[in-house]
Amino acid sequence: MPVFSGQLAEGDIWALTAYLRTLTFDLTAPTATPQPSATPFVVTATATSTLAAADTTPGAATPEVGAAGEASATPQVAVGTITGTVVNGTGGALSAGLTVILRGFDHGQDASSNLAESVSLSAPLGADGSFSFENVEMPTGRLFLAQVTYQGVPFQSDFAATEAGKDALTLPPLNIYETTNDLTPLSLDQVHIVFDFSVETTAQIYEIYIFTNPSKQVVVVPTDGTSIPFIALPENAQEIGFDVAQGSATFVSAEGGFAILPSADQYGLVAFFTLPYEKKLEVAQPFILAPASVSLFVPEGVKLTSDQLTDAGVQSIQSANYQTYSAQSVAAGSSLAFTVSGSPKSSTTTTTTPSLDTQTSLVIGLGGLGLVLILVGLYLFFRDRARRAEFEEGEELEEGEEEEMEDALGDNPDSLTDAIIALDDQFKAGAIAKEAYEKRRAELKERLKRMVCRQVDK
C-alpha cells in the first residue's frame, strides 16, 4: 500500500489496511431502515446523547459536579451529512425503486483487528442518482461506503474516512451495471496447464485461466461450486476442484453463483484434477471460450506431442526444469489434443506438490492483487498448497520450514493480508483446528503490523 505518513493518522492507516484486505463482513446483513425524513431521498439519523436526562423525581440524586462547578459529561460525537451518487456504467437511465445502504465501520483499540459495523442506514435513490444521509454520527476515522443491490448483484462504492472538524463527507461514485448470463463478453487471455507426476501412476494437472471482462455488463456465472460453465475438462478427469488464483481481481457473490464485474484487471481461476498415467496418456482438452494463448509445462523428461503445439524450450522454476509448449489459435468449442509420454528426470521430480482434495470447491475471494500465478508464482502456488494441506492436518513443520514459508510471503503487505483471509476461509470451513488457526493468525497479524509500521516510518 502507498505510504500515508503525514496524510493519515496511525489509527486511520490501520483502519485502511484492515478494510482493504481483511474485510469479511456479510454483505447480506440486514439493515435498519430509519424513519423517513421530511426531505425527499434524505435520511436523518438523530444523534442520541450519551448522558441520560437528569431525573426530576423528588429525592433523585443530583448529578455530580466537578471542582469547576460543571457537570461531568461524555464528549458529544460530531454529526454531519454523507452524500454520493450512483451511476449506471452500462448506460441509460437508472431503474426506479433502488435503495442505497450506507454502512459505517469502526476499529477497536487494536486497529489491526477486523472492522466492526457501527452504522447501517437505508434510503431510496433519487431519480438523478443522488443520495444523502443527514445527522449521521461521524467520529474521526470512521469508514463509510454505499451499497446498492441491482439485478441480484451487490455493488458498493470505495470507502471514505471521516476527518476531524468536518461535518460533511462525499463518497466516491458507486457504479452499477446491467447483468447478463451470456459468457461471450469474457476475454480468455491466457491458459497455463501444468503437469506433475509426483504421485505414482497419476498425472496431476493444474489449469490456470486468466481472463478479463472488457464489456459494460456484469457476467453472472451460475454455479454450485463443483463446476464452472466456461471451464471444460477432459472426459476422464478425476478428483476435480476449483480455486481462485492468487492475484485475481475481485469476484462478487450473486444469486446462484458469482459475478464478474467489468474491469481492466485480470481475473484468475484454477482448475485441478487427476488423470491415470502409465508412461503414456492421450489428452483432449476442450475449450468453451477461445484462449488467446495456451502454455503447457511438464517436468523435464516428459514429452508432449501434437500438431497443435510448439516447443517453447526449457524454463527453470525454482531450480526445477520444465519443458514448455505453446498453442495459438485454439477456437471456441474446439479441443487441444496431445499425447503425454515419458518420465520426469529425478532432479525435477518434486515431493512438495500437493495431492488433490476431492472436497475442494469453488472459493470466491473479496480481495485481489496483481496477478502472479506464472513461472515462480506457479511454484509458490504448488508449494504453499502442499504446506497448507499439512497445516490443516495439524502437522508440525520441521525446523527451518516455517521460516522458509514466511519468506515466501515476502515483504508485501497484500500477500500477508491475503494469507490471513485464506486462513480465515479455511477455519470457517472447519479445515483448521481453532488453536492452530489462532496461533497462525496472530503471527501473520503481528508480521503485517511491523511491516506497515516500517512503511509509515519511511
Tell me about this structure.
This protein is of the alpha+beta class. The protein folds into two domains: about 10-45 and about 80-175, Immunoglobulin-like, CATH 2.60.40; about 185-385, no CATH class. About 15% of the residues lie in helices and about 35% in strands. It is built from five helices and 24 strands. The strands form five sheets. The protein has a seven-stranded mixed beta sheet. Helix 4 packs antiparallel against helix 5 (about 435-455). The longest helix is centred in the last third of the chain and has 24 residues, at about 435-455.
Defining traits:
globular; alpha+beta; Immunoglobulin-like; 7-stranded mixed β-sheet; 458 residues; 5-stranded mixed β-sheet
Task: Report how far apart the termini are.
Answer: 13 Å
* Number of helices, counting only DSSP H or I runs of 4 residues or more: 5
Q: Helix coverage percent of residues? A: 10-25%
Output mean pLDDT: 74
Report the order of strands and helices. Answer: HEEEEEEEEEEEEEEEEEEEEEEEEHHHH
Strand content: 25-35%
Q: Roughly how many Å is the radius of gyration? A: 27 Å
Quantity of strands, as a count: 24
Question: Order of strands across the widest beta sheet?
Answer: 15-18-13-12-20-23-22
* Global morphology: globular
**Class from helix and strand fractions:** alpha+beta
Main sheet overview: 7 strands, mixed
Count of spatially separate domains: 2
Low-confidence stretches: 1-6, 19-72, 348-387, 399-408
